[in-house]
């Protein structure tokens, strides 16, 4: 994505980031971003960070739905609202390159065998089937799995042509304990349980999973929001305002969230744009290879002895994630 590359490199040209007229950081992977941008504001932080990352070629942005009646957006047009939010971010960042932004389905899958029909599903299939590029494709899902599950049901051959990076799912008992007063069905899994059952139970899709115990590590202190994000131009102010408005809203409901906020979707950037230079991989984060469990109708894991190996991340390099985010905001708004 040329303009995203320009946004980072242009302010850095005087700092030795170009040599002999050549850009030093170029895309080495394709990504499709799928997130509930009208919901938890962590998705907006993740989107801004990815748009500032020159090593990724963003092939599409999908606004996805929440669970029916969700407190963040209880409308019947959640996916449409999410796509509108994504366009708002692109406009705010003055990104005019042709990145497709579209709404996914406003509802989840009726069951784990019936795909939804949406323009976003077609986007995923078409991008996965491209033969004119060798760049690997990652589908980054920070919420439910409606569109990617539907895409694989409609075109099973794409399972060998992309990697799904998903923020979601409960803890694995042998890796971590759930938090106090946890919800029995993890939040993102509960957005579309049928879609998750499709992905885990019915496909061979490669999965890098960031379950609840891992994504809860991405804690942003309010002090850093005020000192590293809010002063950084229109984008920093926009992101800070979305979070502060939520904090005020929660106060009205007598909910005290303390002085940190979980930017749980930002590991999508860490595991892709911030991979190691040689033998590319998220080398500073830790995962276990596990047999993909079957997800049951209650949203729990059932052991599957013939499940395919998937990555389950347990420890994330949060210092790398946040220092890169703050630095890119500063470079874009010196």
TrEMBL record:
InterPro entries: Inosine/uridine_hydrolase_dom (IPR001910), Ribo_hydro-like (IPR036452). One of its GO terms (molecular function) is hydrolase activity, hydrolyzing N-glycosyl compounds. Signal peptide: none annotated. Residues 31-250 form the Inosine/uridine-preferring nucleoside hydrolase domain. This is Twin-arginine translocation pathway signal protein. It comes from Spirosoma radiotolerans. The lineage of its organism: Bacteria, Pseudomonadati, Bacteroidota, Cytophagia, Cytophagales.
């Amino acid at each position: 994505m040329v303009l995203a590359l320009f946004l980072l490199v242009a302010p850095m040209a005087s700092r030795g980031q170009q040599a002999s007229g050549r850009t030093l950081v170029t895309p080495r992977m394709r990504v499709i971003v799928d997130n509930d941008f009208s919901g938890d504001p962590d998705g907006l932080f993740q989107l801004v960070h990815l748009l500032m990352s020159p090593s990724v070629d963003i092939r599409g942005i999908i606004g996805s739905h929440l669970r029916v009646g969700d407190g963040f957006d209880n409308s019947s047009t959640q996916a449409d609202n999410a796509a509108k939010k994504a366009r708002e971010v692109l406009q705010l960042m003055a990104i005019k390159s042709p990145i497709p932004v579209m709404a996914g389905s406003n509802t989840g899958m009726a069951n784990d065998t019936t795909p939804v029909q949406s323009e976003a599903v077609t986007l995923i299939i078409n991008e996965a089937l491209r033969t004119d590029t060798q760049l690997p494709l990652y589908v980054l899902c920070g919420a439910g799995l409606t569109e990617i599950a539907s895409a694989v049901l409609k075109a099973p051959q794409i399972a060998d042509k992309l990697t799904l990076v998903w923020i979601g799912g409960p803890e694995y008992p042998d890796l971590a304990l759930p938090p106090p007063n946890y919800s029995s069905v993890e939040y993102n899994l509960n957005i579309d349980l049928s879609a998750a059952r499709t992905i885990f139970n019915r496909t061979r899709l490669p999965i890098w999973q960031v379950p609840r115990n891992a994504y809860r590590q991405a804690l942003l202190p309010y002090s850093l929001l005020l000192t590293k994000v809010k002063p950084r131009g229109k984008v920093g102010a926009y992101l800070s305002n979305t979070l502060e408005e939520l904090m005020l809203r929660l106060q009205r409901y007598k909910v005290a969230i303390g002085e940190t906020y979980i930017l749980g979707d930002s590991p999508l950037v860490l595991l892709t744009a911030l991979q190691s230079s040689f033998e590319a991989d998220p080398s500073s984060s830790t995962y276990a290879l596990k047999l993909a469990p079957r997800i049951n109708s209650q949203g729990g894991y059932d052991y599957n002895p013939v499940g395919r190996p998937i990555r389950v991340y347990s420890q994330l390099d949060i210092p790398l994630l946040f220092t890169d985010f703050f630095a890119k905001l500063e470079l874009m708004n010196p």
